[in-house]
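P.,

For your records, the input lines for the assembly:
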Amino acid sequence: MSNSKGFLKSSIGRKAIMGLTGLFLVTFLIVHVSINSLLFVGDSGATFNAAANFMAHNPVIRVVEIGLFAGLILHTVQALLLTLANRKARPQGYAVVNGAANSSWYSRSMGLLGTLLLLFLVMHLYHFWWPTKVAVFTDHEHNTFDEIKAVFTDGTMGIISVLLYVIGCISLAYHLLHGFQSGFQTLGLNHKKYTPLIKKTGIGFSIIVSLLFALMPIGFLIGFIK
Amino acid sequence: MAGTSGKTINVTIKVWRQKNKNQKGQFETHPMKGVSVDMSFLEMFDVLNDRLITEGKDPVAFDHDCREGICGMCSMYINGRPHGPKQGVTTCQLHMRSFKDGDTIVVEPWRSAAFPVVKDLAVDRSAFDRIIASGGFVSVNTGNARDANSILIPKDDADQAFNAAACIGCGACVAACKNGSAMLFVSAKVSQLALLPQGQIERDERVLNMVNQMDEEGFGNCTNTAACEAECPKGISLENIARLNREYISASNFANRK
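Structure tokens returned:
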């Protein structure tokens, strides 16, 4: 009487995949924001470059990176499939919907926020991930700090990039604001004592992580990261 | 009637009319003059229907039964919210004093692929019945009547089971959910038995069958917006959905059986 085969096809199983991959991506954010915060050290990126270099050449990190991309793809594809199924569940919509009366706009807009994040990610990977990969495989001298600085201090293009990054960070903040606690709820992890703590942690995490990320491009643009 | 205020308002009702599930519907507008604010929303519809019948027109079909907020039959989606603007009440317990003079009130049926429109505002909610039926029976001792309270239940568990059992199956959760998910309903029905000793024997089987039936009926997937909880006339908590997730994940993957 167990159902492990049907599980991954069931609504709850598919949601569990969303929750698990989402929380996995959250753990990635912790590592990413920690290392990138070394940009604020103020030594022209010496500490940051050392850390970035370590990450770029560490075999364990490289393997985890594959898992990261797999998690990201799974999260995105599953979200698309679930959204399509949800559309089918209400073929005829309402003429009047007062969603604000019963739920937050960002909890209802995870698809939109996720799409913005995906678009941001394409740009972000093109900016930083791809050049790093090329440098690792061609064994070129590579100064990540200078490369980041170049993206955000490149005149008008630099300002546009900073704006797009800030929009990306705002999308991230709202996506996490709902997603963090939602992941726990989906996995059934609800507890009288710990759920309020999870919710508070989620709010703090969303704001602090997104703010730290947003301060990086802003810092390069206005020059407090040197 | 004692205690009536005598106050009246004029409102405009925009109501969904649809002959049957196969035909396309449309809105119909009816001005309602001199509506007593002490009327319930359904009584206002009774007045409208009286008029329509007198004029030789087809009255608006809507579900209702007890009219005291406990049966779960009434089901109108009023100005973008199931059961209207008040929290914790069904449409029959909504009164015209909740509206202002001159208001236009848009009334639609529950919208869900699993709840096809029967006529106008009445929808077929037998999908819920099939989910309940799929849950099956609970095993009980037969023979002589047993002493009361011979099975001890912790107060907290009893309270939570009772709160879950308050669900009247009206379908407001499905109507409110942007995904048309029935998770709040199913979670209440699973919880009320999973929390009690009497529900343990069929615990795994029950949750597997009910979720399977829920999926087959074509309800959407929960994204934890909590709109269902906010609109539930019986205040069924989102904790039940977490419990349903837990019960289903556990029964699917960790039940130590073949």
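Two observations worth noting. The two ends of chain B are 65 Å apart (CA to CA). Chain B is about 35% helix and 15% strand.

Regards
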